[in-house]
From TrEMBL:
Keywords: Repeat
Pfam family, one: Arm
Keyword Repeat part of the UniProt annotation: yes
InterPro entries: ARM-like, ARM-type_fold, Armadillo, F-box-like_dom_sf, F-box_dom, Leu-rich_rpt_Cys-con_subtyp, LRR_dom_sf
Protein name in UniProt: F-box domain-containing protein
ARM repeats: 476-518, 517-562, 561-592, 607-649, 648-693, 692-734
Domain F-box: 46-92
Keyword DNA repair belongs to the record: no
Length: 925
């Protein structure tokens, strides 16, 4: 009692039917009863569902997928019997399931009058299948299918009337076996066969008298002469087949007396052969020639087709207009498919027309998908004017495989750059205008997992476009995707996770995904398919990474076990795409240190820091970049800094900084940023210097990118706090690099931190390290350091003066009122500097600089303390507290009043004192 993707109507007469979209499924004739009589509450207030009438239960079964039908059948004996009803097993789709020999052998022998089976990569297990009434076999990507396996399958199922497989690797022997074993064969569609010789085709002609349709698609060669012997053919497709001898074709195929439809798309057919078909094949109605270069270059072929009353379908004419003569009562040409479907349901339907349109739907879906996959240039106008509408019409077909291919075609043709996932805006808009969102969401709601998977893939790809994503969300698509992410079918769950990944890019969708339960569904996916599901794992981790960038969503990720799941991926998964997204998700989770505890939680997760350090050594730049970003964010927590260092993070990050000189700016920025974060700790700072981390940071400081300037300058600033590192910076040529940053970078923050690094280096603490060694070496070092010191101080002074507005300074010098000082603050403030957090030792060092003999260092120290204490700064209260504890107000007052101090030092010191008073007043209130 099973089958496959194909949908077959039953001939049984029944009293009740269950409508499901355009399909109607016949149900057995059970006594009709009122459901309400059976749903009365028991004394305990519980509904006894087992008392439902049989026909109602059967209707319930029809809305479930195969797995859920089987599960529901196991609840009780009566439902087990109902669940085995033949009407529920007209088809069985095995493509997404692993079916070994034991499973297929356990399938029940009793079959309904008609059934179909679709299989995928586990096609060899079907050799055990014994379904005596099986009428149709179809398979996708059956490269492992051998001649012997196919021969055994068809030998056991001699009632087969249709076979649809591709691409497969069988040869002529399999075709001969089909011909001998299946005399009732009506349709044979095979794809990807290397050669189809005359013996195989003649066997079909001899043993299959009812064979009306053949499709040898994307084959290498076929025997054109032998095909003329299959006189029963009404439809033939050789689309994508190469090495066709068209001269022989024109002579022999014109002998096919019943041929109504011919498909030569994606071949090198020549115009004169096509014209000969028009004149010689009297029965021919439609010829498809999509993506045939020679036909497209000779527009006279269109005129000749019309003169013979034939329909030629190609890129250069309107398909809807071409086939509209088949429906003279149709008012709008774009409605021909929908009008035909309505007519086909009526009692007066035209069987001949049904046959033509059914074949045409299949051919169009196949051709459009193949063309979309190859994405040839010059088809923009075709896709916009009719291609999108054709796919949307085909999505409404009653043929399930046509619907699937049309949805896949939509998913494919909108993507114009696979590498960067770029979607063509015009094509996405064409899908929206044609009602594509509603159609795709409708298919995604289907119980059929094949349709769910392909429709969801299209929704995912199209959702790269913000407008489309917004419409999907408005149409309830987020809830649909969240539900599909819980599917037991891995392919469906994978595509749903991809849809949530793309939708989660939009900030406005993150909350809706969380509310729909999407975050838990994504986390559960990681635990559900920990191995063998790289696609689903990468998409789930990517979606979680986007969602973790939102503060509230990041807490939800942590609450449902997301940290453990992501760390598990980072530790155990070897797929680079999964590693990259897992590291990115952990980086985003750790980025909310001020608003939640995820930063600490990630660091405390067993194996998290070790896994990220290991990923730093990956050969894949994307993995290294995201892992470095995660360590950078995690390094803001003191415990994490220690853990990273213990796990070998210093050595790994120094090695990364050495190796990324020619890498992307993002990787350089994060490598330097992680070292910057680690170097906050004095022990780590010393370790970075000892491991050779100074030289690569100096190299990164010379980058052409502002973001890299900032992180490299920040790391060098922290390292320069240690006199030994300061000397290394000088010896490795860091002074010119820092001077260049201080004077030339377009980033104020890079210039500021470069100036502070230079101030640390030349405030006198490095001198004693420079004198170590022989007296001659010490003298040379002293001369070199003095020269470097003069250059550094000169550029520090220049930097500070760029923030000293002369007019504002003069007004502040002559007045004790707050307004002039506020004006100086406004012109001198660097907004980003408010994010910097200094330790007590660093604040103490700036206070000490206020006593330094150098007027430049005094001004620089006062300028720095101004930045760190401006009201509203992120860490201003922290810095104010440190200054109060260190007794800085007395030093600041002395600097503000010193006659020998430069004006900028005095005024900046006054502003810092004013900032301290402001914070003191605020705290007292």
């Amino acid at each position: 009692m099973f089958g496959s993707v194909g949908i077959c109507e039953m001939n049984r007469r029944v009293r009740r039917k269950c409508a499901r979209g355009s399909q109607r499924l016949d149900l057995p004739n059970y006594p009709e009863t009122e459901d309400a009589d059976y749903l009365k509450l028991s004394e305990e207030g519980v509904v006894d569902w087992t008392r439902l009438p049989d026909d109602t239960v059967l209707q319930l079964f029809t809305h479930l997928n195969y797995r859920d039908r089987a599960n529901l059948s196991s609840t009780c004996k009566s439902w087990r019997s109902l669940g085995a009803s033949p009407c529920l097993w007209q088809s069985l789709d095995l493509r997404a399931h692993k079916c070994d020999w034991g499973i297929t052998d356990s399938f029940p022998m009793r079959q309904p009058p008609k059934a179909s089976v679709s299989w995928g990569r586990q096609c060899d297990s079907l050799i055990n299948l014994r379904a005596k009434n099986l009428k149709e076999l179809s398979g996708d990507y059956c490269r492992k299918l051998t001649d012997s396996t196919l021969a055994v399958i068809v030998a056991r199922h001699k009632l087969l009337r249709a076979s649809n497989s591709g691409p497969i690797s069988v040869n002529d022997d399999a075709i001969v076996a089909i011909a001998f074993c299946c005399p009732n064969l009506r349709k044979l569609r095979l794809s990807g066969i290397r050669d189809v010789n005359g013996e195989a085709i003649n066997a079909l002609a001899k043993h299959c008298p009812n064979l009306t349709e053949i499709g040898f698609i994307d084959c290498l060669s076929i025997d054109e002469v032998a095909l003329a012997n299959v006189v029963s053919l009404r439809f033939l497709s050789v689309a994508g087949t190469t090495n066709v001898k068209w001269g022989s074709v024109g002579e022999h195929w014109c002998k096919l007396p019943n041929l109504k439809g011919l498909d030569v798309s994606r071949t090198d057919v020549v115009p004169n052969v096509v014209v000969r078909f028009f004149s010689s094949l009297k029965s021919l109605k439609i010829l498809c020639a999509f993506n045939c270069a020679s036909i497209e270059e000779d527009t006279s072929v269109v005129i000749k087709s019309k003169s013979h009353g034939k329909m030629l379908l190609s890129f250069f004419n309107d398909t809807f207009k071409e086939i509209s003569p088949l429906f003279p009562d149709t008012e709008k040409e774009r409605d021909v498919f929908s009008d035909w479907r309505k007519e086909s349901k009526s009692k007066t339907k035209d069987e001949n027309l049904d046959e033509i349109m059914t074949w045409l739907e299949w051919i169009l879906s196949h051709s459009l998908l193949r063309i979309a996959e190859s994405n040839p240039h010059g088809l923009d106008q075709f896709w916009l004017s009719q291609g999108a509408d054709l796919l949307l019409n085909l999505m409404q077909s009653s043929q399930e495989d046509v619907q699937e291919r049309a949805a896949t075609g939509l998913a494919t043709f909108v993507v114009i750059d696979d590498e960067n996932a770029n979607v063509d805006v015009g094509r996405a808009e064409a899908v929206m205008k044609g009602g594509g969102i509603q159609l795709l969401l409708g298919l995604a709601r289907s119980w059929k997992e094949g349709l769910q998977s392909e429709a969801t893939k299209a929704i995912a790809n199209l959702s790269v476009n913000p407008a489309f994503a917004k419409s999907v969300a408005a149409g309830g698509g987020i809830t649909i995707l969240a539900n599909l992410a819980r599917s037991m079918n891995r392919l469906v769950a994978e595509e749903a996770a991809g849809g949530l990944w793309n939708l989660s890019v939009g900030e406005e969708h993150k909350g809706a995904i969380a509310e729909a339960g999407g975050i838990k569904a994504l986390v559960d996916l990681i635990f559900k398919w920990p191995r063998g599901g790289d696609g689903v794992l990468e998409r789930a981790a990517g979606a979680l990474a986007n969602l973790a960038a939102d503060d509230k969503c990041s807490m939800e990720v942590a609450n449902v076990g997301g940290i453990n799941a992501l760390v598990t991926l980072a530790r155990k998964c070897k797929h680079e795409g999964v590693q990259e997204q897992a590291a990115r998700a952990l980086a985003n989770l750790a980025a909310h240190g001020d608003s939640n505890t995820n930063n600490a939680a990630v660091g405390q997760e067993t194996g998290a820091l070790e896994a990220l350090v290991l990923l730093i050594r990956s050969q894949h730049d994307g993995v290294r970049q995201e892992a470095a970003g995660a360590l950078w964010n995690l390094s803001f927590d003191d415990r994490n800094r220690e853990g990273i260092a213990t796990a070998g993070g210093v050595e790994a990050l120094v090695a990364l900084a050495h190796s990324c000189s020619n890498a992307s700016a993002s990787l350089q920025e994060r490598a330097a940023g992680a070292l910057w974060g680690l170097s906050v700790s004095e022990a780590n700072s010393i370790a970075i210097g000892r491991e050779g981390g100074v030289a690569p940071l100096i190299s990164l400081a010379r980058s052409q990118t502002e973001d890299v300037h900032e992180t490299a300058a920040g790391a060098l600033w922290n390292l320069a706090f240690n006199p030994g590192n300061a000397l290394r910076i000088v010896e490795d040529g860091g002074v010119p690099a820092l001077i260049h940053l201080c004077s030339s970078s377009l980033s104020k923050m890079a210039r500021f931190m470069a100036a502070l690094a230079l101030a640390y280096m030349f405030d006198g603490r490095m001198d004693e390290y420079a004198l170590v060694g022989s007296s001659s070496e010490g003298s040379l070092k002293s001369v070199g350091l003095e020269r470097a010191r003069r250059m550094a101080l000169k550029h520090i002074e220049t930097f500070v003066l760029t923030f000293a507005d002369p007019q504002a300074f003069n007004a502040a010098a002559l007045s004790s009122l707050p307004a002039p000082l506020a004006q100086v603050t406004d012109s001198a403030r660097i907004l980003e500097a408010g994010h910097l957090r200094c330790s007590g030792a660093e604040i103490g060092r700036f206070v000490a600089m206020l006593r330094n003999q150098s007027p430049v260092l005094k001004a620089c120290a006062a300028f720095a303390l101004l930045q760190f204490t401006v009201p509203g700064g992120r860490h201003a209260p922290h810095h104010v507290n440190l200054l109060q504890v260190s007794g800085a107000p007395r030093v600041l007052r002395a600097a503000a009043a010193a006659a020998s101090a430069p004006m900028e030092a005095k005024i900046f010191a006054r502003i810092v004192l004013r900032n301290l008073e402001h914070h003191q007043l605020e705290s007292s209130v």
